[in-house]
Amino acid sequence: MISIHEGRTSADLNGTWAYALEADTPGEELGWTDPAFDAATWRPVELPTNWYLTEIGDFFGSVWFRRSFTVDDRFVGQRIFLRFGAVDYYADVWLNGTYLGSHEGMFNPFEFDVTDLVDRDGENVLVVKDGAPRDPTEYVQATFPENPLSPDHQRHQALAISQVKGHMIDAMHRPGAMTKYRQDGNSGGIWGSVDLIARPAVHVAHVRISTRIGIKKDWLGDGLDKPDGTGLVDVDVRLVNTTGAVVTTDLVLGVAPANFDGDPVPDRVRRVTLTPGVTVHKMVVTVPEARFWWTWDHGHPSMYTARAAVGEDVVEQRFAIKEIRHDDTTGQWYLNHKRIFLRGMRYISSQWLSEANPQMWEEDLTKMLDMQINAIRIGSHVEPDGFYTMCDELGLLVWQVFPLHYCVSDSDDFIERASDMIRDMGEMLTNHASMGMWSVFKEPEIYLLPDKPNNYHRLCPVLKETLATVDPVRWIHLGDYREGAQNLMIGGVHDGDRPMDEVVVQPQIVEFGAASVPVLETLRTFIPEDKLWPPDWDTWEYHGLFYELAFKGAKVDLGSSVEEFIDNYQRYEALVVKEQIEFIRQRKYAPVASMYLYYWSDSCPIIGSGLLDYYRRPYQVYDSMKAVYTRVLISLEREARPYIIGREKVYQRGQTFSAKLWITNDHDHAIEDAVVSYAIVHRESGEVLHKSEFSTRLVADSVERVDQIVWPIPANAPGGEYRVAMRVADAAGAVLSDNYTDLVLR
């Protein structure tokens, strides 16, 4: 169970620890758990960290960690808990030679009550065995294409992974990529903070908050259900009584504005009787004149503070009054009863989450806001808590995916263990204002082998049921790609020549985008010079190129140098992602409700598919996407069959260029007297061969075809490159969207 630790008396045990790698003889047999053991030969390491980032490197197995500490006077009269923020993956813990217990997981915190085990006057010895082994699943070659890759570097598939580590153990864009070695880059380590936490004998362990917007039927009017201006705050308070006796006391719940001016709600007081152990008590508070949490583009992300008190113990939790609803018929999203469109981004801060920090998140999220992103999908991992707090404050809606990715076991044992972890994930995150929706599995049916675990029908429903016991309000998705979720990565996962006029579009575009190659400066950090050019394809594949996708899917021209290849691939990615965005935005609400680029940044030094690489150096796609991921977008839909995007658009003299002109408006308000203009320009001479300008009204939260461009190409038109330059401005002349489509006349 997750327990509140914020705001309490605490002492961190981070800093320098001693470590040793376990070899053939288990550390237990060598006496490593004994507080008197002489660990003088153990080496120092700074915790918290993923050990990949230290001299330990890419190690699979068990690493033992050890340190001593004292307990200061602040803990007098308090119960003392030893808390681990995150240990990847199997943890066994001893204090002063006494075994405290074990824990499995890579993201979920855990703790032990050590009140009766700590020496309050002397040295305490803490020993942790952290086991992060290579998963025993077998990897087998899953495809047999003709390419220059060796058998070990062809596409491989796990049979049944037994660890809940999501992207950190098996995904496309990680060390080893899709080869036989795809578990490389081990994320093991004590990567979360280690702390001593003080709590009274009777204390609040956890507060789970659900909210609803007040609705009342208008009995005296039109008889319709209408918002009544209130917010209903529904709280489950988990109390722990360690006194050994029955305690009768008052449980108090207070609610007050946290990030805006307003009056607190009068405290709710409930008399409760606490038997020894754990009890859960319901508290309900009605907030008059409630302020709601909105994404940044629809309003203010208003938040409240809940204060729960029992006896001398007081804890606080930030939360928001909001409702996010999924319409199961249309797939559309409603925030506080208002339909919204989600311009989203998939995000993973790092393959090794100890690297994540507030400065990284602030820089990333600031850039996302500048790109007018309003939603983030955390795909098959869990970020540190501070990330979600920052999303709360900035008004970014989060779609959280549980850390399961590709082919995991569907055994009874695995279902049980994963269910315990998804319950923890729910308790960790459900109070965050930014939390919008959940998925219990990234891609439960994406396997390249004929004999597949039955995860969609066995594992996923149990996970959904378990998560719903923590969060019965938000939409819980079983996993991509059912229930209206779709991957639309043209030139990435899908063939670059896929006819878009044949695609049946779904409401949730949970992945779109394409792959590319980072700049040479980045490429040289992980590709040895002698493997760089001509390319050693095994090395490139190991680091994420995906030969088949690059040369048979995207059909990128290799060129005659590494610099030329990088430019060719980056230019293709920039164009095909831009045109995917245009295609999707033209289908807003018909039926598209959300769209998420795959990814913001590469999670490790790799040939990836981010806007930014691991070092946050931009791919060319960064600027091209930023230009079209705006709340107002003007775009073309050429009348061509088959409708291919991301390719050169070639016309002949005597043909007619014909295209629909679309404008998407994601603003809550109409834009009156918007000025729309376009011109077809010969790029070399600057000659304008066709143009138009007119005024129109852009309906709030809409997409409309505002014109039809028809240009009969003259027989004497000069050959070469043309640009259809488009612009929409408001009545005052402020540019709302600048866009273009390039043509070639031969």
Automatic annotation (TrEMBL):
InterPro entries to which the protein is assigned, alphabetical: Beta-gal/glucu_dom_sf, Galactose-bd-like_sf, GH, GH2_Domain-Containing, Glyco_hydro_2_cat, Glyco_hydro_2_N, Ig-like_fold
Organism superkingdom: Bacteria
Domain Glycoside hydrolase family 2 catalytic: 331-478
Protein's UniProt keywords contain Ubl conjugation: no
UniProt keywords, alphabetically: Glycosidase, Hydrolase
Record bears the keyword Transmembrane helix: no
Biological processes per GO annotation: carbohydrate metabolic process
GO molecular function terms attached to this record: hydrolase activity, hydrolyzing O-glycosyl compounds
Residues of the Glycosyl hydrolases family 2 sugar binding domain: 31-129
Pfam families: Glyco_hydro_2_C, Glyco_hydro_2_N
PANTHER family in the record: BETA-GALACTOSIDASE, BETA-MANNOSIDASE
Family statement: Belongs to the glycosyl hydrolase 2 family.
Protein name per the record: Glycoside hydrolase family 2
Organism of origin: Desertihabitans brevis
